[in-house]
Design a protein that fits this description.
five-stranded antiparallel sheet, 1 helix, 5 strands, globular
């Protein structure tokens, strides 16, 4: 995984590299208007779970940005 090729996928679990938060593994699932995003950050071994009650199209899917904002907030307050 590199900045040029930041993603991987297998068995519904994907990995990603976001420069502001580093490497992490995640799963995003949806059903009947609800979505869940689970992300595991190896450093510092933390799992974040975010539930969203929507099914947006690709242009309106901000789940990744929401997860990045939550991670930054926890990191900046010393809770991560």
């Amino acid at each position: 995984m590199t900045p040029e090729d930041p993603r991987g996928f297998g068995l519904g679990v994907a990995r990603s590299l976001v420069p502001s938060i580093g490497k992490f593994w995640y799963y995003e699932g949806e059903t009947l208007g609800y979505r869940m995003v689970y992300a595991w950050f190896p450093e510092p071994d933390v799992v974040l779970a975010v539930g969203i009650n929507s099914q947006p199209d690709a242009n309106e899917n901000h789940a990744g940005k929401l997860l990045e904002t939550i991670h930054a907030t926890l990191h900046n307050t010393g809770n991560l």
